[in-house]
Automatic annotation (TrEMBL):
Keywords: DNA-binding, Phosphoprotein, Transcription, Transcription regulation, Two-component regulatory system
Signal peptide bounds: none
Limits of the Response regulatory domain: 3-117
Name of the molecule in the record: Response regulator receiver protein
Gene source species: Stanieria cyanosphaera (strain ATCC 29371 / PCC 7437)
Superkingdom assignment: Bacteria
Length: 120
């Protein structure tokens, strides 16, 4: 089973993502802040990270930068309310594999998750 880390501080959205992904057979864990996301990503054998950019303690930008600078290769899909083209471009340049803006349809997220995990 594929393990997905969800870095999201909005409790209701995190629960929605967890429930939906588990329904499709994924094993999930939630990090409520950036520091926790970094620690879990380094030790949890996750195969994909769903990353919000606006996290407490350490924002998603720093999480992305640190994981990539440490050689973490698993796919990272940024899921954020920031929907401008400049942010999207910057996130992809920093090493994110994909970018999805809130609000989104769960089916769109699921398709992206499956495409990364099937290709690995």
């Amino acid at each position: 089973m594929n393990r997905i880390l969800i870095a999201e501080d909005e409790v209701r959205l995190a629960a929605f993502l967890e429930k939906g992904l588990q329904k499709y057979g994924f094993v999930t864990a939630v990090a409520e802040d950036g520091q926790q996301a970094l620690e879990m990503a380094k030790t949890g054998n996750f195969e994909l990270l769903l990353l919000d950019l606006r996290l407490p303690l350490k924002d998603g930008w720093k999480v992305l930068e640190e994981l990539r600078s440490q050689g973490q290769k698993f796919p990272i899909i940024v899921v954020t309310a920031l929907n401008d083209e400049g942010t999207r471009h910057a996130v992809l340049l920093k090493g994110a594999n994909d970018y999805l803006t809130k609000p989104f349809k769960f089916k769109d997220l699921l398709t992206r998750v499956q495409s990364f995990l099937v290709s690995n």
